[in-house]
Amino acid sequence: MKLSQVNCKNVLCIRADNMGDIIMSGPAMRALKETLQCRITLLTSPMGAPITTHIPEVDKVIACEIPWVKAGNDLNAEAARALTERIKNESFDAAIIFTVYSQNPLPAALLTYLAGIPVRLAYCRENPYGLLTHWVPDQEPYTFIQHQVARDLKLVETLGAFTSNNTLQLKQQAADISTTGEKLRQTGITGNYIVLHPGVSEEKRKYPVDRWAATARLLSAQHNLPVVISGSAADAALANAIVDQAEAACRSMAGKLNMAEWISLLDKASLLVSVNTGAIHISAAVQTPTIVLYALTNPQHTPWRSPAIVLPFSVPGSLKSRNEVIKYVDELLFTQHIAYPAPKEVAAAAASLLLQPGKYISTSIIDLNSNPVVDHCL
Questions:
Q1: If both were cysteines, with which of 41, 147, 213, 285 could 168 make a disulfide (CB 3.0 to 4.6 Å apart)?
Q2: Alpha carbons 153 and 132: distance in angstroms, whole number
Q3: Are residues 231 and 87 in the same domain?
Q4: Is 378 a member of any domain?
Q5: What is the CATH number of the domain that holds 89?
Q6: What digits encode the pLDDT tens for the residues 180-213?
Q7: Statement to judge: residues 142 and 194 lie in one domain
Q8: Average pLDDT over residues 66-94
Q9: 103 part of a folded domain
């Protein structure tokens, strides 16, 4: 049964992950909203919640730490029962569970089942039987791999939800743009600038401090522009270490901007250089040219439909995931060791990208075994 054939006006979407994951689910939520003319509540993690006020399709947010998602504190049994009751009291007509291919949707499916939501949709590798009313067998990554945006869109398409606009989008306010500009002026920046974003949520994605500093010096000299280091307060020590080594080439704004100001900073930047984290999905939404220093973990998360170049590097063996699905992809696609991109490579990629303003450059992760399994072409 298609969602458009039933009265689904109050929809729960579940994406209990990081900010970048929520941004990539935006087009699928847009498809639901445009097709059903519905209200969307997003159940997400405290890590992802800060971006939700900028996602146009989200009307309400439930932020909590749930035990099947890596977080600082697990939800205890009593709190889990309270969450189930809260969701039940919202009287949702449908629940859509978004996942990456290495995640199991069944804990979230059980939550929505116990809450009595009548329509429950997700990808699932195993037969979920009664936990899902609408089961889409998950063929990824064993048959093919697609970009996360495409994966989420195709999930909701199975229930008849479509959109003609599959771009990433974020809401901004003029006041936030103004305050960001004022904070930049206080550091001496009044014109164009380049942003480096070195902070990571996982150790395996780190790029060395000395290479960040060398990259900052090269980019500043090459383009005659100041370089800004962005990040949260937790990234301040890392940012300061880069500034100290780069000397006059850059300034740190780590911990000095709120979420809205950070989005504005990336929007107005001439270029972003970042590891594969939420920053690259924000830059994709605002169409800022981006160089991604991409740790070879999940190939689904390159910048979506935006000017970008991906420079991959291998994850150290000691930091590789124990998840068997991720291990399968690693052994299929990433058998050849790739060293960290040299600062000169980063600078050359930046020069190439900035010579072609507005031009989309394919950001597919290159399959080093020439196996055409990765599809980023939607």
A1: 285
A2: 18
A3: no
A4: no
A5: 3.40.50.2000
A6: 999 999 999 999 999 999 999 889 999 999 999 9
A7: no
A8: 87
A9: yes
Q: Do 147 and 189 lie in a common domain?
A: no
Q: pLDDT tens for residues 106-154?
A: 999 999 999 999 999 999 999 999 999 999 999 999 999 999 999 999 9
For residue 141, give its domain range.
Answer: 3-157
The single-letter code of the amino acid at 254 is A
pTM of the model: 0.93
Query: If DSSP states are collapsed to H, E and C, what string results for the chain?
Result: CCHHHCCCCEEEEECCCCHHHHHHHHHHHHHHHHHHCCEEEEEECCCCHHHHHHCCCCCEEEECCCCCCCCCCCCCHHHHHHHHHHHHHCCCCEEEECCCCCCCCHHHHHHHHHCCCCEEEEEECCCCHHHCCEEEECCCCCCCEECHHHHHHHHHHCCCCCCCCCCCCCCCCHHHHHHHHHHHHHCCCCCCCEEEECCCCCHHHCCCHHHHHHHHHHHHHHHCCCEEECCCHHHHHHHHHHHHHHHHHEEECCCCCCHHHHHHHHHHCCEEEEECCHHHHHHHHHCCCEEEEEECCCCCCCCCCCCEEEEEECCCHHHCCCCHHHHHHHHHHCCCCCCCCCHHHHHHHHHHHHCCCCCCCCCCCCCCCCCCCEECCC
Q: Is the pLDDT of residue 65 over 60?
A: yes
pLDDT in tens, 307-364: 999 999 999 999 999 999 999 999 999 999 999 999 999 999 999 998 876 655 555 5
pLDDT at 291: 97
